[in-house]
């Protein structure tokens, strides 16, 4: 959800790109970025609906949060805010109570396993102070009555392109790959006031695991875990084909039988003759009955015809 289309803004000297620093080493708006809600679609109502799953039937799957009770969800929010609120489009606000109640609905509806909530705004730590649902780990960029500052300005664009807290987290994440064993505790241990210029906070009392055991990749695109379930049907493995010493020897073809039918037994010559004779006798009786019926019919027709001539 992007409230401002910075990549295509007329003030952006690099159309279609968003760089977090003047060096432009990383394009945050790369080919793998999908924006489902942009501009005036980014509202408090739509944000709550996405979290809770209360969507109209006409909303496509690409705009839904298709999660269940085994899903780990990462929620990142940034913008202008204050004590227990964050602005949307500069004309409405979402409060700490709104997010807390939305997470509780998600828990009641079994829409998540764990949530990692991160927010970068002024007085950010107040936004997770009202959480009361289980299995939520939260972190913010600044204490109450404390501002969150930008990192640096890009002279080619004329505005600040990233905040200090987000820049610090991004630098840490650039050293993480999908098989990394780095923990959440290692991330939080890197928080430094001299680098961020504010006091980031962490709330883990609702989280059910030790932060040293919670991996970064549990929430940031790690390797998928496959669950092996018992088979629903028992399938017998096919028998291996017979082996032949001579590579040019032909493999004998097995007879093909219709499904759900037993293989017919081979008949001796006498049994075959008797079977054929029985079939012949049966056919002869059927033919005799047919000729008798025709003869009777002809006789009746002739008898009726003779009566009429008299």
Automatic annotation (TrEMBL):
Pathway named in the protein's UniProt entry: Glycolipid biosynthesis; glycosylphosphatidylinositol-anchor biosynthesis
GO biological process assignments: attachment of GPI anchor to protein; GPI anchor biosynthetic process; proteolysis
Protein name (record): GPI-anchor transamidase
Molecular function, one GO term: GPI-anchor transamidase activity
Transmembrane segments: 288-306
Region (Disordered): 233-264
Database matches in InterPro entries: GPI_transamidase, Peptidase_C13
Taxonomic source organism: Meripilus lineatus
PANTHER family, sorted: GPI-ANCHOR TRANSAMIDASE
Domain of life: Eukaryota
Pfam families cross-referenced by the UniProt entry: Peptidase_C13
Family: Belongs to the peptidase C13 family.
Keywords, sorted A to Z: GPI-anchor biosynthesis, Membrane, Signal, Transmembrane, Transmembrane helix
One of the record's GO cellular component terms: GPI-anchor transamidase complex
